[in-house]
């Protein structure tokens, strides 16, 4: 039996088309970045089909999710080749920059070999963290240590010329960096050295601050020159063309030979006491200094300032990398100019995000509410953003799902933290997040609101929150809640609550933030004072020693009240709670109060801070599916241990599993995917407790319970009653309830996931499979499977996807559209061009991202249509 996941969404074809067009526009405003696929990444993909059933109702069904784990490959870049002259018995230093171009952490060994008419007496390597071409210290190194993906390491190779060398001797020094992860992978740069008896001028450059924001003002570039030769050098020329991200500061030139005297910029012929200094603007943007003579043993500096341009992307890139070239007359001949070291200004990454919610008018009972939230990456680096619903006032039984732009393909987890996300999003890009809320039959009233939060993967403290509202009637009364307003908000209703509405984990010495929402249910505007206490009755507001609470607005300003809140409106304030460094493990009850000084109306909110061991489970996703009367649906949920201790082993912690159905006649059973292949097999056992998760294979749990970070796939098989009428609906709730103390820390609250099943006359089943195409020739190496690909997939390789839709109902379906999106960290590969066994096909351009679709006018009962296409993992 296949593991399929189906979704019934009651929206019109016109609405679907409008959503798809909006998604196209949003992606055109800012496309996803083609980021390289890091090692260990699980690339997930899920397909969707829309169709019209025998009653002309538009339906949507989603497939199972297929996962591919990216394997590590090594890569290294080494720059640059250098050319220098050196005196007999002297030393020469060659600057190099090594970059880990692989897709995972790696270390690199450094070695050298020389050839030519002389051999160095010794060659040693030294770290050069600031990139000024000079060793940081006298401690030699033999390797880089572990470097993260994309990380650069600067060092210098220092060679000592023997006293036996004679003028004219040469040496070609090959400097090699070798990967520790894959010793066959290496890179080599060559440093050319010529021995001379004449002048030998060495030049290095430095930058006073090597990293910071964009823009930045007054950064100083310094050229340092030294004559280590035997004769005077003349016409020592230093020249640098500034990159696009650096702008010269007029009047900033200085020369050590002239002290603090300002060097004139605009005249290329004025001799200023032994130096001719000039800056030529557009189009060359060049700084040039010609020093008349440098005696043996003499040294000096030339410096100037630059401004760093605004709005530069994060990281080290050509826009902020400057390389000086130099040449001189050594007393016998004019030497050709050569490059010295490159100084690099690294723009610090800054995360930023905005999220705009939406308001939708009332919809029919049992309908689907579609919110389109526009998310914009306002940071300066490619980032992905996790999406979550914080709280909801929608009726019990409402299910929420996130979809990609256009609303046709579910949003998946692309960064491996069990939370749906946008995938890599370039700076400035806008992404249309589609939030679908499926209401239970018979739901009435309102208003209903759901709060959506976007969290930066680069910096988890950077978040944006948007509220999506279904128009309705405001609730009355004064209320203080967590996270959002409304009937389902934590702490809703008169306080004080017997149990904490929200419990946040905290380490000793840290600060945690509670979001407080004060809602004015009176008929006039009012202001509420904000107070905190560890006493539920607020007999005292003195907190225990070392504890503190500071109320802040979103802009960071400190406040002690909500400000004016209009009738029926809400005000959001943050309570930053600081835990003392010596706090013992345990739970501290904390109470907040909103008090009107005018009317005396007040509400109290009970929250808690849990210090020490953190416990938690995550259960995702929610589903919406379809079944014929007497038929079944299998829903796949992932239960993940998100805490810092093992859960459910039956010793210190027990986790019970249970299902409940909202409609009579429906039944549900929980199975564990013991072999972790994504398919409900006859050998997959029925489970009611996590202690039963033993003896698994293929990456599934082998010991009872879930270790830290471990996940288990649970199938919930729902059976509709044989006599169910078309249109009947049921919500199945899977709940995982934890009991038992661990380290004195109480069990986390129960977690739940829902699956809404509608009884229909027609039934389309959708199955997604994949196969690895290592050489990208369009032919997979093995058979298609729903099981995860956990080995062999490397950047640059291809994946073949197969989506099969089967009409398992008694009547024909029409206007069938299979939709699948090219997942994050991959691009479409025309080597396996999109094709279908019936209908027409559309696909993005080769090497691009986008939607792959197959359209079929009609599909008779019992028939299937299959869509195939390929993607390439971004190297």
From TrEMBL:
<protein>
    <recommendedName>
        <fullName>DUF11 domain-containing protein</fullName>
    </recommendedName>
</protein>
<dbReference type="InterPro" id="IPR047589">
    <property type="entry name" value="DUF11_rpt"/>
</dbReference>
<dbReference type="InterPro" id="IPR051172">
    <property type="entry name" value="Chlamydia_OmcB"/>
</dbReference>
């Amino acid at each position: 039996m296949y593991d399929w996941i189906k979704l019934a969404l009651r929206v019109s074809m016109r609405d679907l088309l409008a959503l798809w067009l909006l998604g196209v526009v949003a992606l055109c405003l800012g496309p996803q970045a083609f980021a390289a696929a890091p090692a260990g990444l699980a690339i997930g993909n899920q397909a969707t089909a829309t169709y019209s059933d025998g009653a002309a109702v538009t339906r949507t069904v989603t497939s199972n999710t297929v996962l591919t784990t990216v394997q590590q490959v090594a890569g290294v870049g080494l720059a640059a080749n250098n050319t220098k002259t050196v005196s007999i018995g002297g030393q020469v230093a060659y600057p190099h920059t090594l970059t880990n171009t692989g897709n995972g952490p790696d270390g690199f060994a450094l070695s050298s070999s020389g050839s030519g008419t002389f051999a160095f007496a010794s060659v040693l390597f030294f770290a050069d963290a600031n990139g000024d071409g000079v060793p940081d210290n006298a401690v030699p190194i033999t390797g880089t240590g572990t470097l993260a993906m994309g990380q650069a390491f600067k060092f210098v190779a220092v060679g000592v010329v023997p006293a036996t060398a004679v003028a004219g001797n040469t040496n070609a020094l090959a400097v090699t960096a070798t990967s520790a992860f894959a010793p066959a992978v290496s890179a080599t740069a060559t440093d050319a050295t010529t021995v001379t008896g004449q002048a030998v001028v060495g030049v290095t450059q430095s930058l006073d601050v090597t990293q910071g924001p964009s823009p930045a003002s007054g950064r100083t570039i310094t050229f340092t020159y030294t004559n280590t030769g035997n004769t005077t050098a003349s016409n020592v020329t230093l020249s640098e063309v500034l990159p696009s991200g650096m702008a010269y500061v007029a009047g900033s030139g200085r020369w050590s030979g002239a002290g603090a005297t300002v060097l004139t910029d605009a005249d290329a012929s004025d001799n200023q006491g032994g130096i001719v200094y000039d800056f030529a603007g557009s189009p060359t943007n060049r700084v040039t200094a010609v020093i008349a003579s440098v005696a043996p043993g003499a040294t000096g500096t030339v410096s100037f300032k630059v401004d760093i341009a605004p709005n530069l992307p994060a990281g080290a890139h050509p826009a902020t990398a400057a390389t000086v070239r130099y040449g001189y007359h050594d007393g016998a001949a004019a030497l050709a100019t050569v490059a010295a070291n490159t100084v690099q200004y690294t723009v610090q990454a800054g995360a930023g995000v905005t999220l705009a919610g939406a308001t939708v008018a009332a919809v029919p009972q049992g309908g689907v509410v579609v919110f389109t939230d526009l998310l914009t990456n306002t940071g300066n680096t490619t980032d992905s953003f996790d999406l979550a619903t914080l709280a909801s006032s929608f009726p019990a039984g409402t299910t929420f799902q996130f979809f990609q732009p256009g609303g046709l393909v579910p949003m998946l987890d692309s960064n491996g933290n069990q939370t749906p996300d946008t995938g890599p999003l370039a700076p400035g890009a806008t992404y249309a997040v589609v939030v679908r809320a499926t209401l239970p039959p018979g739901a009435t009233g309102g208003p209903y609101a759901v709060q959506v939060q976007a969290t930066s993967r680069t910096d988890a403290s950077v978040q944006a929150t948007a509220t999506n509202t279904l128009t309705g009637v405001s609730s009355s009364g004064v209320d203080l809640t967590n996270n959002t307003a409304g009937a389902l908000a934590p702490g809703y209703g008169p306080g004080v609550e017997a149990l904490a509405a929200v419990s946040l984990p905290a380490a000793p010495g840290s600060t945690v933030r509670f979001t407080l929402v004060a809602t004015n249910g009176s008929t006039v505007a009012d202001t509420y004072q904000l107070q905190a206490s560890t006493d539920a009755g607020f007999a005292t507001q003195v907190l225990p020693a070392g504890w503190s609470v500071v109320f802040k607005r979103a802009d960071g300003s400190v406040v002690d009240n909500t400000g004016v809140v209009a009738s029926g409106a809400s005000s959001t304030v943050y309570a930053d709670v600081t835990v003392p460094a010596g706090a013992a493990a345990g739970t501290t009850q904390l109470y907040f109060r909103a008090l009107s000084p005018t009317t005396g109306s007040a509400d109290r909110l009970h929250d808690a801070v849990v210090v020490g061991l953190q416990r938690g489970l995550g259960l995702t996703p929610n589903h919406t599916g379809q079944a014929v009367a007497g038929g079944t649906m299998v829903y796949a949920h992932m239960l993940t241990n998100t805490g810092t201790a093992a859960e459910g082993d039956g010793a210190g912690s027990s986790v019970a599993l249970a299902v409940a159905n909202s409609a009579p006649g429906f039944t549900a059973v929980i199975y564990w995917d013991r072999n972790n292949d994504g398919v409900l097999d006859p050998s997959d056992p029925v489970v009611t407790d996590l202690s039963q998760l033993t003896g698994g294979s293929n990456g599934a749990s082998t010991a009872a319970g879930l270790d830290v970070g471990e996940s288990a796939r649970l199938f919930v098989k729902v059976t509709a009653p044989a006599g169910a009428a078309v249109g009947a609906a049921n919500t199945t709730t899977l709940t995982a309830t934890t009991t038992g103390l661990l380290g004195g820390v109480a069990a986390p609250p129960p977690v739940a996931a829902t699956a809404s099943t509608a009884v229909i006359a027609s039934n389309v089943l959708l199955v997604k499979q994949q196969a690895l195409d290592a050489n990208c020739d369009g032919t997979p190496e093995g058979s298609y499977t729903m099981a995860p690909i956990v080995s062999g997939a490397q950047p640059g390789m291809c994946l073949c996807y197969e989506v099969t839709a089967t009409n398992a109902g008694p009547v024909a379906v029409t206007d069938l559209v299979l939709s699948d999106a090219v997942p994050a960290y991959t691009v479409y590969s025309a080597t396996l061009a999109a094709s279908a066994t019936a209908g027409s096909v559309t696909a993005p351009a080769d090497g691009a991202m986008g939607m792959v679709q197959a359209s079929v006018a009609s599909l008779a009962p019992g028939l299937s249509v299959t869509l195939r296409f390929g993607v390439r993992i971004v190297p």
